[in-house]
Amino acid sequence: MCSAHYTLCFQMERTQGDGEVDHLERPSPLTDKERVMIQDSWGKVYQNCDDVGVAILVRFFVNFPSSKQFFNQFKHIEDAEELEKSAQLRKHARRVMNAINTLVENLDNSDKMASVLKLVAKAHALQHKVEPVYFKILSGVILEVLGEEYPEVVTPEPFNGGRRFSALNHQRSQGRRSLG
Ligand code: HEM
Q1: How many other C-beta atoms are found inside a 10 Å radius of the C-beta of residue 155?
Q2: pLDDT tens, 3-56?
Q3: Ligand 1 center to 62 CA (angstroms)
């Protein structure tokens, strides 16, 4: 599982069937080797950050239309091609990718990671009134799109119950078409 996704999930609370709120387990710290693998893998994705970010958000809004309700400029748009052109969507895609990039760049700086996550969490909860479940859904879509577009860096080996970035088979990426 990508560490940024993992950290975002870690920040979220999960509601149990009986209505009690339970915190996710704290992940074990990354080793230096894992951190460098994640940064290396993410670097490849981030080279195409505009196209990847838009592809992720279009998939998210098409497959989970209720998530559009928070965006005044495209909440009524259904067509994927039209969504793709929306300036508000493209801006949010850049913001999402840049926030993840800051997290990945600071994997060894937990204070910085916590402050970025806190800012994002506060703004979305208090200002934009986004329910936490949408973060969970979006993180699944991120992994789905990256798994399709970058199979060499997002591999399916289980890692604490999820998927992770991996440096495995980087060579296989040579020559693969890039997104967009
Ligand atoms: C990885 C997850 C996400 C990241 C890193 C992220 C990041 C950001 C950032 C940095 C901003 C601009 C600053 C701000 O207003 O807070 C923003 C704005 C916003 N985000 Fe997110 N976001 C994420 C997920 C979501 C989700 C799941 C939704 C709703 C389904 C959402 C809805 C919004 C809205 C409505 C705005 C304001 C848009 C505007 O004013 O044009 N975000 N987001």
Answers
A1: 17
A2: 333 334 333 333 334 444 455 667 788 999 999 999 999 999 999 999 999 999
A3: 17
Q: Which fold has domain 3-8+33-173?
A: Globin-like (1.10.490)
Task: Enumerate the domain spans of the chain.
Answer: 3-8+33-173
**Lookup result for tokens 């986004």:** 130
Instruction: Check residue 155 and report its DSSP letter.
Output: E
Residue spans of alpha helices (H) in 3-151: 3-11, 32-46, 49-63, 80-85, 87-105, 110-122, 133-149
Give the pLDDT score at 152. 87
Q: How many CB atoms lie within 10 A of CB 101?
A: 17
Name every protein residue with a CB atom under 6 angstroms from any ligand 1 atom.
8, 67, 70-71, 88, 92, 95-96, 99, 120, 123-124, 128, 130, 134-135, 138
Rg (CA), the chain: 16
CA-CA-CA-CA dihedral for 120, 122, 127, 132, to nearest 10: 80
Q: Determine the Cα–Cα distance for residues 125 and 131; give it in Å rounded to an integer.
A: 7
Predicted local confidence at residue 2, as pLDDT: 39
pLDDT number for residue 23: 56
CA 36-144-122 angle, to 5 degrees, is 75
